[in-house]
Amino acid sequence: xTLSAERLSYTYPLSRSQGAAxxxxxxxxxxxxxxxxxxxxxxxNGCGKTTLLKLLSGVLKPDLGSVRLGDREVRLLSRRxxxxxxxxxxxxxHPAFDFTVMEMVLMGxxxxxxxxxxxxxxxxxxxxxALIATGTLHLAGRSYMTLSGGEKQRVxxxxxLAQMPKVLLLDEPTAxxxxxxQLEIASLLKQxxxxxxxxxxxxxxxxxxxxxxxxxLVLVREGRVLMQGPTKEVLxxxxxxxxxxxxxxxxxxxxxxxLTVVPVSRQ
Amino acid sequence: xNEAVALKPAHAIAPIRTRxxxxxxxxxxxxxxxxxxxxxxGSTHISLARAFDRSIPFAENVDAQxxxxxxxxxxxxxxxxxxxxxxxxxxxxxxxxxxxxxxxTLGVSAGASLGAMLxxxxxxxxxxxxxxxxPLASFAGAAVATAIVYWLATPYRKAMxxxxxxxxxxxxxxxxxxxxxxxxxxxxFAQAYRAAxxxxxxxxxxxxxxxVAALPLVVIAFALFALLPSALNVLSLGPDAAATRGVDVVxxxxxxxxxxxxxxxxxxxxxxxxxFVGIVVPHLVxxxxxxxxxxxxxxxxxxxxxxxxxCDLGARTVLAPVEIPVGVVTALIGGPFFLWLLxxxx
Lengths: 267, 346
Prior knowledge:
Chain A is of the alpha/beta class.
């Protein structure tokens, strides 16, 4: 199922009331996410990456334009139906109560359960499978709050997988993780994309992560799409300079097997 | 924290159905047993068997009269108020994503108290149907406070801001407290004493009538609570996380806010603002059964009933024949418990 945005515009209510602060808005954004693709969303802080993800997931409603999932418009779908198709992994998840890992993952079954329905053996099996896929089964009985950052993020990904979504939206999922965990999450995402065919959209500041994972890139600057296309074509010294105002070397790295970006200086 | 401490007991992984059944059965038994034992204890010793003995006519059965007429209304109002406040506490804590919230955090009880104070001090005696003046006025005061907080914290068709909810509630609490103090200051001694006594909380409602009046409100609130538990679980991850897991956040927040406010209003109008039940009970329950709201909510209601009935039993027996206000007992237990929670969290 293709997830697409057509001529989206969105301005946050706060900046709307204060006149026209354009920095918190998106203007005329059109993108198309192919099924089973792994798309990276790149851009400087405040460019609208998170806003775009929230519009794609239907958490925010666009002022203009529409988001479509297949042939259906996202804003017309109920939260429940939408959550059966699209799951979101935020940068960090802080539950207010001390849930166990299993309880966190089972919350992913929420959109599949009726109002008074308790999860049954089928749901437990799906949750178990999600724990296995993310390598967190041994943590099932642990308190989520006591986990390390990398473990937490894997559990949140497991919770999203338990939703059995067609599309997974990830907002800087590795931002607060150390190098080891970053690589671990990256290979996990790649594997889930390949094996389960989950379409993924990944907002990130890590150009090398994007280069290693994503087949398609969307570059966003000041609320507009600067460029979109295959990673090999879009990720160049010129585009990095245009996007971040940074002079960088972009070259294919033999041992890593993908493009790498080495920032040199600020323009 | 080391592995051993972080590991949850096996119950946390047992299927939800089993855990729910065991918990409801256990806490339900505790509540029923407490409600049956409490009326037996007091200055006159009575026997449960004799109280329920149908072969003796009620007019001659002193045990039955003491059990059903003198003591049962008080026990039942304790059970109703305890269940309502504990369940409302659970819902407010999830709604505000703050485990230290209480049913009184958002100013509902301050509004209720102001309403009651005005009636007590100006000696009004209006009554509508089964509702007499003080409960009626305190319910109206609670409704006003709820409406103000809701209006402040809810942008049109948007999710509630929990930060604004908390701030509005805290501000409203102080504002109403000031008004309460002013009203008490201008009152004469007898009225001020009655008012102060009301603020300490009192489950001695005398007859079944006030309980029957409050019961429908609590029943409506609990019927709405039944819609909430799994949404509360997901809401405690934050509104966006809840939305992307299929929760209609605006609707769930509104149901939670109004049902918990309704339960609190009904409880306070029946027995005055009895503090700490709404925080002590949910936390004790979580220590015993984990944090899943589908279990915590019914368990807290049942345990709340048992807890308040037991506190009231203590209040009327520990220093007998002197009675301690039940609000003093719950505060004496709850205050240190609350501090312990704070220390434990930090």
